[in-house]
């Protein structure tokens, strides 16, 4: 009798398998990502904000045509991805990026990308230890970066002197800002936690709310209506808030490059929004700070924006100088959202005063009761209470055992 031969199931090849989402520009890629996707992009020196957006999108791997850490400075993005358990492969080059088609199923194993078991791109795999080692090495190049940073700051101040130092060219929003606190919200790292931390301040102080680009949607999602929305004319559609949010705001300010024509705001006007133009080379979030400072805000609270040295360099953008000089300009007024809970504990409510008064009264009575006069008062009070109870008992109707209606 011939026994049937049992077929063995094929062994799956090693590596991480998923759908490739390919885009050279990371900003355009982020809205298309779904949990489990493998992000294939070209992003030199991955910054922390972008890395956190990739983690939030649920990607399992990031395949980068450029180096994750070039060594120019200690960028913070790769550490965020490594801590989240995302597989990191970089330096596959432009040819490798072109060989991976968007939407195809790929497999990544030992820094090599396979399509239908055929290798199409190869690079370098980074783990958490590699990231830490390269970060330490990159920090040795800070001196060169700071020299470039100083030069760029000088050039920016020369171009933006009238706006930054004298407030010339700033629009006049209809929202009253003078003498009021202002909260500027940017969709940055840990913005949700920071917004939650300042809820008491928002509820009790009723500040002016400025949402910078997607920061306006962050405010709406948290249940607040932004008073002012500040946009960048050069930003992608994915970075702009919805039309509903724009129409709900009292003022919409658009940051445009100097000398830009009216066409950059025509689209908003067709949507029924009449934007105010702000011509400057500063970034949108810096423009919001400059606007609040020039309108004489009492204090400016920044949500989603940080200003440590590592974070300055991590941004690695043309607006680095504008951020530095803007912080110097608004320094006396600017407070980071993380500091607000330590500095502001909320208003004193009537119940707080009643509790203090009650505690004081109890303490006073306790102190008086141990004095001779207090002892006499206590004896008199006890006698009065005894007489009152005796009087009430005698005056009450007598009820026999059969009830009051017998």
Automatic annotation (TrEMBL):
Keywords: Membrane, Transmembrane, Transmembrane helix. It holds the Pfam family SteA-like_C. InterPro entries: Put_SteA-like, SteA-like_C. The keyword Ribonucleoprotein does not apply. The chain crosses the membrane at residues 352-371. Residues 339-388 form the SteA-like C-terminal domain. This is Cytokinetic ring protein SteA. It comes from Nocardioides koreensis.
